[in-house]
Design a protein that fits this description.
The protein is of the alpha/beta class. The chain contains eight helices and 25 strands.
């Protein structure tokens, strides 16, 4: 068995070669995507700003824009001759000693070089007597600084400046930026096609009737679809494959011709009816099999190869639901982001915290253990976690009740109450 870290590194290195040689970004198809549909897609173009931001000098405060060469020392008097609002700029002439009432976000007239906060004038004393249709005077209660309270034209973004790079994963902040630039559509890479298949004579599709006691519902495919829902991918569902070598071979061969990645659940152990590893070896190769983690030890990373075609990367998960979740979170989701062209630094964070164990935790050395727990904070804000007493990998209700994994490293043994442990909150609870 290899360690979790070794498997992660092996997957990252193989995908780096895949992205550079087997299926480089510059050879991938590009689609035009509406701005609101582009979230989590990968940019296939450099985004440059069509104009400067701010487009003009803008007031950062409510107050008064004062003309060049005016006396802005304490107790000086300024004649206010107009008003500049957001969306309605003052266009008249302004001379030294004059100014205009201005509001946050409004254009600063070109003749003005200072905005004085209304709090630094006698505005509060005279506001009820001001007739906006006529000039009126204000008195400065504090000396102003030239250029104060002005957001300069282009101080954030220059016209034609690159603001988003090719290969950037589009996040909500990027949507805000693109909207501010007036871009309603962007070019993104066509989503990868990911095939999902489940194996096992005992499996029945959700919604169908269980006709005898040996049957169970296929929960892994819906689970994977929900876990992968934020990724820029298209999913092909190949359904449930019975424990039959010929049918398994035919289904995998079909997926090879239609997918970029294939993810399976069950059929990768060493049982007499586990045929997937045999099929993968016949149609391609297994790069790594078995990882030192619990649950999910029989994790397969391989690839399917057709002459003249790019490899189809393969991830084989065990059949129990908990191992499916652990394997998807630890390996498959980061791999799919990387395959989509997103650098490791731009991928969604896998948040980890340090917490105090509220009870004793049983563990044997030899494998990294992902145990279900309940993470909370005490009255002092310190994170603490309670481990469920039963950690069998088939306990699906327990997974639903938990809000985190307690990650116990490979060489660790039993944990005592009060010890510090590493915790991974479930991503669906902090997104």
């Amino acid at each position: 068995m290899i360690t979790i870290e070794q498997l992660r590194t092996a997957i990252e290195q193989r995908i780096e070669v895949y992205n550079n040689n087997d299926f480089p970004l510059n050879k991938r198809n590009v689609i035009t995507c509406a701005l609101l549909d582009s979230l989590n897609h990968v940019l296939a173009q450099r985004i440059t700003s069509p104009f400067a931001i701010p487009r003009q000098n803008i007031s950062a405060m409510d107050g008064y824009a004062i003309a060049h060469h005016s006396d802005v020392s304490k107790d000086s008097c300024i004649t206010i001759i107009g008003e500049s609002q957001a969306g309605r700029a003052y266009l008249g002439e302004i001379k030294a000693g004059q100014g205009v009432r201005i509001f946050t976000g409004a254009v600063v007239p070109s003749a003005c070089d200072t905005v004085i906060m209304q709090e630094n004038t006698n505005f509060a004393e005279i506001k009820n007597s001001i007739d906006k249709s006529k000039p009126y005077s204000i008195v400065l209660s504090k000396t102003a600084n030239i250029d104060a309270n002005i957001r300069k034209q282009g101080e954030e973004i220059q016209q034609a400046e690159e603001v988003l790079s090719l290969g950037k994963r589009i996040n909500p902040a990027d949507i805000s930026l693109l909207a501010n630039l007036g871009l309603s559509h962007v070019q993104v890479f066509k989503p990868l096609t990911v095939g999902l298949l489940a194996t096992g004579d005992e499996l029945v599709p959700v919604g169908a009737e269980l006709t005898h006691l040996a049957q169970i519902y296929n929960s892994n495919t819906p689970t994977l679809k929900s876990l992968l829902s934020a990724l820029p991918i298209t999913i092909n569902d190949y359904g449930i494959i019975p424990d039959d070598l010929a049918q398994t071979t035919a289904s995998v061969a079909k997926a090879m011709g239609e997918c970029d990645v294939l993810v399976s659940t069950a059929g990768v152990s060493v049982g007499d009816y586990d045929f997937l590893t045999t099929v993968i070896e016949r149609l391609g190769q297994i790069n790594h099999y078995k990882v030192a983690m619990k649950p999910g030890k029989p994790f397969v990373f391989g690839e399917l190869c057709q002459a003249g075609s790019k490899p189809v990367l393969f991830f084989g998960l065990p059949g129990n639901p908990l191992a499916t979740v652990v394997g998807a979170l630890q390996f498959i989701i980061p791999a799919l982001w990387q395959l989509s062209g997103v650098s490791v630094s731009q991928q969604p964070m896998q948040l980890t915290l340090k917490a105090t164990a509220k009870n004793d935790i049983r563990k044997s050395p030899g494998r990294t253990d992902f145990q279900r727990g309940l993470l909370s904070q005490n009255e002092c804000g310190v994170y603490q976690v309670e481990c469920f007493s039963q950690q069998d990998s088939h306990r699906i209700k327990q997974l639903s009740l938990a809000n985190c994994f307690i990650v116990l490293d490979q060489d660790s043994a039993h944990v005592n109450s009060g010890d510090t442990v590493t915790v991974q909150p479930f991503p669906w609870l902090h997104c």
